[in-house]
Design a protein that fits this description.
By secondary structure, the protein is of the alpha/beta class. The protein has a domain of 215 residues: Rossmann fold. Helix 2 runs parallel beside helix 8 and helix 4 packs across helix 6. The longest helix is centred in the C-terminal third of the chain and has 27 residues. The chain is globular, with a radius of gyration of 20 Å. The two termini are 37 Å apart.
Length: 311
């Protein structure tokens, strides 16, 4: 497979916003019109990796700085996955979500990439900073697109992370999809199809509404479209990559072990506590699932007969 370097100096000489984003990342998102390579019309996401990762960023006004945070922290995300062995043979596809009612580019679709090539896709995204006062964004259009326009290798284990701060709708509208050049035959709920496509590896990292507070109705709306423990609250914006890494890590190891991983990479007690609290329900669910599989009685193997001999 070869090695893909993802080394760059983001923080040297940088100043930081209240979100913790660097002045380097603030210079990387300058596009005002969509790059043709991000246009969802007639495009498919095709991955040849065993573990494709899709990150769907909400780039409306209230959530826009997450794109900059992800840019700053993605090399660490990538490096930790490799060094800790959370996944083998993975790539990352960056996508963006806006508001189909108010924005010019409500859906932007990247291409799976490895190493520094991921940056080129991040930097193509238009941070439109739009959205409206309707208290939801077009996450359901992204769900529909991903459910029907991704091609993975046989036996692949894809995962998608939505990074959001508003409520989600459980119905996609045919007309809104067609306006974006995305095929859709009817109004329907796309989330069951997406969950099936991704083997229930669909998660939302949910931020406080406008960075202020969690709204119960927003949280409940997400818990209705995926397993409730897959709705993961962001304790502080700078923890976003720690949370995504944690989702990957606890598929292989105990949450306490992941907390030690965080400590070893220099995270504060506050960060570690916030992240582990947010991941606890998911970790308990994974542990229970593993225990159930372990406790299931093994089926007695059938004896096969070939040419009069048992084998």
């Amino acid at each position: 497979m070869g090695s893909y370097s993802y080394d760059r100096d983001v923080y040297s000489g940088s100043s930081y916003s209240s979100w913790g984003t660097s002045d380097v990342s603030s210079t990387k998102f300058t596009r005002k019109t969509i790059d043709k390579d991000l246009d969802p019309k007639d495009k498919k996401i095709v991955s040849k990796s065993k573990n494709p990762i899709i990150i769907a960023l909400d780039v409306t006004g209230s959530n826009i700085d997450f794109a900059r945070l992800v840019y700053d922290k993605l090399p660490m995300f990538y490096g930790e996955i490799e060094q800790k062995g959370y996944l083998k043979d993975f790539d990352i596809c960056i996508c963006a979500v806006g508001d189909a009612k108010y924005d010019s580019y409500p859906i932007q679709i990247g291409t799976p990439a490895k190493g520094l090539e991921i940056d080129s896709w991040l930097e193509k995204i238009v941070l439109e900073s739009g959205g409206g006062g309707n208290e939801y964004e077009s996450y359901e259009i992204m769900a529909h697109y991903l459910a029907h326009n991704c091609e993975f290798e046989k036996g692949a284990h894809p995962i998608v992370f939505f990074i959001a701060d508003e409520s989600v709708r459980d119905k996609v509208l045919k007309t809104e999809c067609e306006n974006l050049g995305i095929e859709c035959s009817e109004n329907y709920n796309p989330w069951p199809t997406l969950n099936e496509k991704f083997n229930n590896n669909v998660y939302v990292m949910l931020n406080k509404y406008c960075g202020d507070y969690f709204r119960d109705d927003f949280t409940d709306s997400w818990k209705k479209v995926m397993p409730p423990e897959h709705t993961i609250k962001i304790p502080e914006e700078k923890a976003i990559v720690d949370l995504m890494l944690g989702v990957l890590a606890i598929q292989k190891q105990d949450l306490d072990v992941y907390a030690l991983d965080m400590k070893n990479r220099g995270q504060t007690v506050k960060r570690i506590t916030g992240v582990t609290d947010s991941l606890k329900s998911l970790a308990d669910s994974v542990a229970l699932s593993t225990q159930v599989e372990t406790d299931l009685p093994m089926e007695k193997p059938k004896q096969l007969v070939k040419k009069g001999r048992r084998i």
